[in-house]
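Complex record, two chains
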Amino acid sequence: MKTSLILGQRALRESLRTPDSLLPTLLIPLFFLVVNVGQAARIFPSAGTEFLKGQNYAAFQLPSSLLVAASFGSAALYLVEEVEGGYFDKLRATPIPRMAIAFGRLYAELVKMLVLGAVMVLIALPFGVRIEGGILGFVVLITVIALWSVVFSGIMQVVALKSRSAAATQSASLVFFPLLFVTPNFVPRHLLTRPMEIAATVNPVTYVMEGARSLILDGFDGPALLRALAVIVAAGALMTWLTVRTINSYD
Amino acid sequence: MTAAILAEQLMKTYRGRSGDVEAVRGVDLEVAKGEVFGFLGPNGAGKSTTVRMLTTLMTITSGTARVAGFDVASQPHETRRRIGVALQEAGLDARQTGRELLVLQARLFGMSRTDATDRAQALLEWVDLTEAADRSVKGYSGGMKRRLDLASALVNEPEVLFLDEPTTGLDPASRLTVWDEVRRINNLGTTVFLTTQYLEEADQLCDRIAIIDGGAIVRRGTPSELKSELRQRLQLDHEPTLDDVFLDATGRSRQRVAGDVQEIHA
């Protein structure tokens, strides 16, 4: 744990020194938010759209944008860079648990996403978005998003360790990225076409999105939050198992 | 007395696309404490694979290896506490400063922040990098990176230091600086296991050498023993060089190894 924190601090320092990789994590999701709201806000006016629960369409879209920010997997790109450059071996030659190398980066990912998530929500507030769950809801919201970013980045790190190639790692993130859009991204699940509804129902990202959205639109919706947390815990357990297995057998 | 490195019938087999590849085939090594041991061989001979097995970075297919008295396969943590590793192509985090990199390395060996800071400062002075200490590693020259890599391999005052081709890609002046560092480290009692393609480097630095070819050791001894053995066996009328020993051991002609083996002269 202590070693992970030491390595995590280094990863955070690294992120701060590469704003060119940090800024897109903030700007691209905000771009998606602006474009999606600009395209669909008139179709879904707050007055006549039941699922908006009195808020504007930006409130409905915000969780999607937060999840886009959480799905950059930059930790994996830094890791694969170290694998290719040889520093990963330097770390492996020290007397630390090897999983600390991967978990250190995930700790940094958690902190980074807590900050970026908070900034994104704060940017959205002046545009009429309210967090129905209040300050506690705000904290839970960015925590859920940050935990999801840890899970996603962890899975990407497994790809990085398996492939040892930056190109393959980037390609893998493009494979996972569409999962964000096979979700109730623009409208609630019950308004999707039947095939899309089935696809969204089997997609675990849907439950994270619905949990996050419930904090904005409903306050604390226990079942929605529990489903989101269950997905995060299950995916997190799978990611942890894969990470430990992959890094300990890394040759 | 316990050997610093003791390997018996070390083997490494990779599963390649066209079947199994035997990268290392039954290597036996015994390196005494305080020795500078040179491990020579052409590209792809199995030098780096052997080093990676001895430094716990790679699993051993069969055979055993003990480094600093510990079994590398069953006691990897104990082994890592007692070794320093500088691999081919200095693997450094280019986004950190030299000082940050050394402090981090020291902390990973369990030192407190204060002790790690002091150790980093001492090492920066040792390798003459104090002026560049707070600059990003990205801006370091090849020689500076190599010296920093050496320093990072020394944070834990290792009993055994592994240097995998420490001077590859360096200009002659930087190479001579690294040689001086290796001698200084060895003078402090550290055992040095050095792989190199540069025969002059082995001649200058090593007490004993082993030549590996095709995954197996084909010669071993002191440089002078190997040269005199070749002189007697081929009944030469002149003192052969280590190049001649290498070429004889690996069955290569000078034409064939052009580009593989380079020499520098101090």
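Note: Residues 2-248 of chain A form one domain.
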